[in-house]
């Protein structure tokens, strides 16, 4: 692709944002907004392909493998059924490339796609596109929308460029994908990474400041060092499984001693098949996820996020005798006391 060419861009799906109650302390708001798109570490994400060329599917598999190899504590597993997949991937060439962001995919019906690729993924730009869309699914926003980037746009030139072929975007699409700044509370640190895999390529005349990008911005392609650092911060290593995870007994409370962003895992092995309630307690903000352990593979069953509310995360679910389950709790905000716990009954 020539330096002055306008590439086709990712048209990320709008965030599904639950409003926070008014009056929350700034620190509490920031922690919730920073973590609410992220998966609990150790999550096994299942992906499924709609019909598409074999080479394009392989490019996506390779991109998942590249993210995993950092290493990060998420697992990516291809499945043969859309109903079994949290991430459903199409190759509709008329629909551009896009993804939902992070855990927003859980709110999308299983009959709908959560990611699409609208151009060839087998060249360098396509490989970066595959990494980029998966980055969205892992909870990463567009890097040029980082409020710390200090970018001053030639806005009308941006609207004109992206409104023309090959993107043909509306002004709303241009604003939401380029000009709109994300909240500072959703950004780790204060550093803009112009080489991020989540950064667009921009031609000359679109960026006014920083002046060195007035002639255009062309990231190196692939995962940058800061991309790797950012992702490993949220998903460090491999989460423990099996006997290393403590067993949570029925009616036995477990204390949670977590810092913001940390998580705890507990095994549940019910003695009878019936409806159970699993709940956190304490004045904290958490997300709680229930998995079934099927021959070592964690299958997502249900989740609850109590961030910003006065209630606690709670799940009512029928657990079956002889089966194994795992509950994973991630802390957003520890509250005034810093004390919380978990129980099922």
TrEMBL record:
| Any Pfam family the entry gives | Astacin
* UniProt domain Peptidase metallopeptidase: residue ranges: 35-170
InterPro entries noted in UniProt: MetalloPept_cat_dom_sf, Peptidase_M12A, Peptidase_Metallo
Write down the SMART domains for this protein, in alphabetical order: ZnMc
The Swiss-Prot or TrEMBL record annotates one GO molecular function as: metalloendopeptidase activity
Q: Which GO terms describe its biological process?
A: proteolysis
Name of this chain's protein: Peptidase metallopeptidase domain-containing protein
């Amino acid at each position: 692709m020539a330096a002055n060419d306008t590439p086709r861009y990712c048209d990320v799906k709008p965030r599904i944002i639950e409003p926070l109650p008014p009056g929350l302390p700034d620190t509490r708001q920031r922690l919730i907004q920073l973590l609410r798109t992220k998966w609990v570490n150790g999550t096994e994400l299942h992906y499924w392909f709609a019909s598409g060329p074999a080479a394009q599917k392989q490019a996506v598999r390779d991109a998942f493998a590249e993210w995993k190899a950092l290493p990060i504590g998420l697992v990516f597993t291809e499945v043969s059924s859309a109903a079994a997949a949290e991430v459903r991937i199409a190759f509709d060439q008329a629909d551009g490339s896009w993804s939902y962001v992070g855990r927003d995919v859980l709110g999308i019906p299983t009959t709908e796609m959560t990611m699409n690729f609208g151009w060839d993924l087998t060249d360098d730009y396509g490989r970066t596109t595959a990494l980029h869309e998966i980055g969205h699914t892992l909870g990463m926003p567009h890097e040029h929308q980082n409020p710390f980037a200090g970018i001053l746009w030639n806005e009308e030139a941006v609207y004109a460029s992206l409104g023309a072929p090959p993107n043909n975007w509306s002004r709303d699409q241009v604003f939401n994908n380029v000009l709109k700044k994300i909240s500072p509370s959703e950004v780790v640190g204060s550093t803009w990474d112009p080489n991020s895999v989540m950064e667009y390529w921009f031609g000359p005349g679109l960026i006014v400041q920083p002046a060195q990008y007035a002639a255009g911005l062309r990231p190196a392609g692939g995962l940058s060092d800061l991309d790797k650092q950012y992702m490993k911060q949220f998903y460090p290593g491999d989460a423990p499984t099996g006997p290393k995870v403590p067993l949570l007994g029925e009616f036995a409370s477990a204390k949670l001693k977590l810092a913001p962003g940390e998580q705890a895992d507990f095994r549940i092995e019910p003695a009878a098949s019936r409806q159970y309630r699993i709940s956190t307690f304490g004045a904290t903000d958490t997300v709680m996820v229930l998995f079934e352990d099927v021959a070592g593979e964690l299958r997502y069953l249900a989740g609850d996020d109590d961030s910003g509310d006065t209630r606690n995360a709670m799940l009512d679910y029928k657990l079956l005798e002889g089966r194994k389950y795992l509950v994973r709790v991630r802390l957003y905000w520890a509250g005034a006391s810093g004390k919380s716990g978990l129980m099922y009954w």
